[in-house]
Amino acid sequence: MTRVVIITGISSGMGRASALYFKKQGFEVYGGARRVNKLVELNEAGIHTQVLDVTDKISIRSLVDRAISEQGQIDVLINNAGYGEYGPLEEVPIANAKKQFEVNLFAVGQVTQLVLPMMRQQGFGRIVNISSIGADVYSPLGGWYHATKASLNMWSDVLDSEVRNFGIRSVVVQPGLTKSEWSKIAFENARKNLVENSPYDGLVDKVEQLFSEIGTGATSEQLAQVFYKAATDIHPKRRYYHSLVDHGMVMIAKTMPNIYRNVLTKLMK
Questions:
Q1: Active site residue 62
Q2: Would residue 145 show up in a list of annotated catalytic residues for this protein?
Q3: Which of 25, 85, 89, 198 could form a disulfide with 143 if both were Cys (CB 3.0 to 4.6 A apart)?
């Protein structure tokens, strides 16, 4: 029996790698992104692609309706689209903070609301929400990003409690640092969000250096396999991590918050 997955944000990084990996595993893959030129090779690989703006309900509905009309079912939804609106909390425009929540949280809710009726009718389905260890582990400049991911984790847990009686599960994947454009874009945003003669200019350099020293982490292809496990486990877990290091950092931040804060303070000196 053919299985069907919808993946948001497939133009690059984890989303792109996941679209290719799920296709290789025999899934019919539907997905999209705003950067149309990035979708050509995926389309040639047999992935059903289209322009997608996750903040536009009409755009989302077009993708969901297409998958249902062509396949008659949706087995998995992977809410992958997201980005980092970095910058000092004193200076990030509230309009930019609202956009961060719009993309990283409210768009997830919008897509999920459109998919759930089909999954309830089927009596099965899996919602995989791509969060971050940044939902629990934090650093300066990432305040709004961390807030969206912490909210996404709680949202996913509540959703799971509501839909599991219908045969549907909602789970979270929490990647750490990745070998992708994510950090580059996040720090480009951080600098754009600085006001003229900002007192936080040196902090941006320091945090970016810290990220660089920590390393690049998992590849997109490695994370695609984590996504696949979260989507297909017979007995799904609430949280999925790529490595013991990622999981360990989350546990330290959650269970020993003072120690985590002290270490972070020393690193920022």
A1: no
A2: yes
A3: 89
